[in-house]
Amino acid sequence: MSNQNSEPAPRPVDEIDLALLRALQADARAPIGTLSDAAGVSRATAYARLARLREEGIITALTVTVHPKRVGLGVSAVVLIRSTPDNWKTWSSMLPILEAMDEVEYAADLAGEVDLLLLVRLRDVEHLQRFVTEELRGRIPGIGSVRTLLVLNQTPERSLVLPS
Amino acid sequence: MSNQNSEPAPRPVDEIDLALLRALQADARAPIGTLSDAAGVSRATAYARLARLREEGIITALTVTVHPKRVGLGVSAVVLIRSTPDNWKTWSSMLPILEAMDEVEYAADLAGEVDLLLLVRLRDVEHLQRFVTEELRGRIPGIGSVRTLLVLNQTPERSLVLPS
DNA sequence: GGTGAAAGATTAGAAGG
DNA sequence: CCTTCTAATCTTTCACC
C-alpha cells in the first residue's frame, strides 16, 4: 500500500464517476448493467470508467466489510501516541511497520497534541495489553506517551459519503 | 445501520467462511468460482455460505473504497470530544444524528479521558471549521471540550485482518 | 451440510463505428 | 460514448452422498 496523501489529484472525477462509485458503495458485486444504469451510461462506458478509476487509484479497493465481533475480534481500541522530540521516525518510515501489524486497521499522523493515532482490532483485552507493551513499544522508536482508549460502541464501518 | 456492538455472536465462523471473506477482501467483484476455489469448496457451497454470511450480519457491506482526496475531500480530521456530565446523551440516541452527518465516516464511544471520537472527511479547512462550530456544537448536546486534530498522513483504508 | 451436474438467463469483455 | 457480438459466468434446482 502506498501513502494516501502523497500524490495530488491530476484529473477530478465527474458526475458519471461519482454515480458509479455510489452504486459500487451500495453493492460492490452489482453487475455492470446495474452500475451503468445508475450512472445513465452504457455498459461499455461503465467498463471504461471503472478501469480508469482503478488505474488512477481513485478506487483503492473493492472489499467486504466484516462485523469484527463475529470473526473473533471482540475488542476495538484507539491508541493515542505522543512522540519524544528525538528519535521519532518520519511517517514514511513508520508506515510499513504499522501496516505489517495485523491489529492496526487505521493509522493517522496528526497535527496537534497527539502525533499518531491508531485504530486497532483485537481478540480480547489480553491481546490489547500484549499489543501495546510488546508490539508498539517494541517496534516503534521514539514513543513518548501512549494512551489507550477502549471502544465501547462504534458505528459500523462505512464508506466515504461522496459529495454531490 | 444498527449498532455494531449490540448483538452477541451466536455462531462462530469456520475456516471456510474465513477463506471466503479473505477472497472477498482481496476482490469483492471476484466471480463465485474464484471464491469457491480459494475456500476449497464447490460453487454451490460458496453460494450458500455467502448467503448465510449476509443474513447473519457477518458481512456488513460489500463496498468500494475511494481515495478521499481524489473525490474532493481533501481534508481529514480526528475530533476528540469530552462531555459535560449533565445533558450528555446516550450513545444510542446520538448514533442516528452522527450517521446523518455526511462528514462523519467513523464514530466511537470511548472509555477514558475522551468520550467520543470522530473521523471526519471534509472538502477543505473552511468546511472543517463550519462542521465543528455549526454541525457539531449545534446538534449534539452536552459537549464539553472539542479538540480537532488535522490528519497529515494516513494509511489507506484497509479491511480487518481476519484471524487465521 | 456438502457435492456435482444441468439449465436458461444474464453478464462479461472486446471490436468496431 | 454507443451498439453489437460470442464466450463466459451466474444462479437455481436437482438427486445423491
Q: What would you note in describing this structure?
A:
The structure is a homodimer of 164-residue chains. The first copy, chain A, is 35% helix and 27% strand. By secondary structure, the first copy, chain A, is of the alpha+beta class. Chain A has a four-stranded antiparallel β-sheet. In chain A, a hairpin with a 4-residue loop joins strand 3 (104-111) and strand 4 (116-122). In chain A, helix 1 (15-26) packs across helix 2 (32-39) and helix 2 packs across helix 3. The longest helix of chain A has 15 residues, at 125-139. Chain A is elongated, with a radius of gyration of 19 Å. The two termini of chain A are 28 Å apart. Chains A and B meet through helix 1, strand 1, helix 4, strand 3 and strand 4 of A and helix 1, strand 1, helix 4, strand 3 and strand 4 of B. Chain A binds a DNA duplex (17 and 17 nucleotides) through helix 3.
